[in-house]
Amino acid sequence: MEYQNTLEFALQMDEQDSLKDFRSKFLFPQHNGRDVIYLCGNSLGLQPKSASQYLQDQLNAWHKHGVEGWFDGDDPWLTYHNKLTGTLSAIVGAKKEEVTVMNSLTVNLHLLMVSFYQPKGKRYKIIMEAGAFPSDQYAVESQVKFHGYEPKDAIIEIHPRDGEHILRTEDIIQTIQDNAGELALVLFSGINYYTGQFFDIGTITKAAHAAGAIAGFDLAHAAGNVKLELHNWGADFACWCSYKYMNSGPGGISGIFVHEKHFGDTSLNRFAGWWGYRQDKRFLMAPGFDAAIGAEGWQVSTSPIMLMALHKASLDIFGEAGNVDVLRCKGDDLTGYMEFLLNKINADLGYTLFEIITPTDVKQRGSQLSVVCSKRAKNIFNYLTQNGVIGDWREPDVIRLAPVPLYNSFKDIFEAGRILTAAIKELGL
Question: CA angle at residue 320 from 316 to 323, to 5 degrees?
Answer without folding.
Answer: 105
